[in-house]
Write a structure and sequence with these properties.
The longest helix is centred in the last third of the chain and has 14 residues. By secondary structure, this protein is an alpha/beta fold. Helix content is 26%, strand content 19%.
Length: 165
Amino acid sequence: MARARAADVNGARELTLFLCGDVMTGRGIDQVLPHPVEPTLYESWISDARDYVTLAEQASGPIPRPLDFHELWGDALAELTRAAPAVRIANLETSITNSATPWPAKGINYRMHPHNVPCLTAAALDCCVLANNHVMDWGVAGLFETLEVLRAAGIHPAGAGMDAA
């Protein structure tokens, strides 16, 4: 399961954890990865996820396509390697699904193509927390596919499931 690493520091045990909030790999992020989903958005201000890429490039310059899964994390991966946390946990603010049916009238529906899950395994995440306002963006089918993709990638989901247990 998790890689355990504890060290004795002044006679006490120290455990290093990586706890990361709000990892959002949908919208424009998914569009620059090797396997983007269909870019239609249901937002009142933008209807195509590629427009977010255009806005980012206008502000910061060209973004390579496809972006390597490791490049998505920038300098953070080297820092994670240096810190060598025992467990890496992130709040995943994105459904991982090909579902074409967004949650009705939600308006902001994040999703990433299942073949882009290596962007999460690149950070060697142990667990993705799904208890957030985007877990149901693509309905029950999207949630179930997200759970399946995470488990197949060796990432434990937490905070949502196929039943109450």
